[in-house]
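Researcher: Next sequence.
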Amino acid sequence: MERLKVENLKITADDSLLDQMKEVIHQCPKAIKYCKSLGMSDEDIDSNVIKIYDFARDINYCSNCPGLKQCKKENAYLTSKVTFNNGVVETQLIPCPTLLKRVSFERQFLIQDFPNEWLDVTMPELDRTKGRTKATVVYNKYIKNEETNWIYLTGGMRSGKSYYAAAMVIDLAKRELKGKIPICFMNASKRILELSDLNKKNNEEFKKKLEQYCTVPVLVIDDFGHEFKNDFIRDAIVNEIISSRYNKRLFTVFTSNFTLDEIEVLYECNSKAGAIMSKQIVKTIRSMCGQEVDLGDLAIYQ
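Model: Next structure:
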């Protein structure tokens, strides 16, 4: 299609181009209906073809939205809006609804320690191994408000534990069945060390951040067991998070290369008192999730 010409700051178009624009508009019932809902007459529509054309073209394209990544529009992630006041038609560009929905969904993640590329994953596309099926049963009971059991995913390196945990909470965020649910997907090594350091620098900020992990409705503790360990971390951070979430029955997912028996040994920190506390931590986790869900040792992600 030939481009509109700009001459002396006035937009002009030949009759054939205007006819093409009118055809696009009149073949878009949604555009016509919307314009008339604003109070436009047929004459108003025909005399403002140039302004309404982009609006109709956006409707036609966006009605079959290919997704944000595949958007091929010149004004990608934007859409035209038409207004009609005092007999004057104006147009403006506004963020597209799909983009706004995506932004709203992403804001539910207070902490997002996984790649942005994973945000497009969907539960149905994941392979249905025995372990994943078992975890999905627990997850489905949570979204149906039947239970609030926890999930402990274990398995070998690159067996898809983190990816599967991310898929669950991404699915949950998109569903919005329970309203806007704040979610923290925390890498244990990174965030627990962050908390420990914060305690030394700013105790009030430490308490505030720790409270977030204790009370956020949905928490994923990713790569559990690889974090630095000492008595303070075990007693004041890990135990505090787990016991608080246990008392409030808040949905929690763990991913780990270690079994719960191995976690118990790791958190003993070579002391009798530590062994008692470590045993209590593992006992609490087991009471909420029963047995671990083993995804196996096969590396499915390279």
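Model: The first helix runs from residue 15 to 26. Confidence is low (pLDDT under 50) at residues 1-11.
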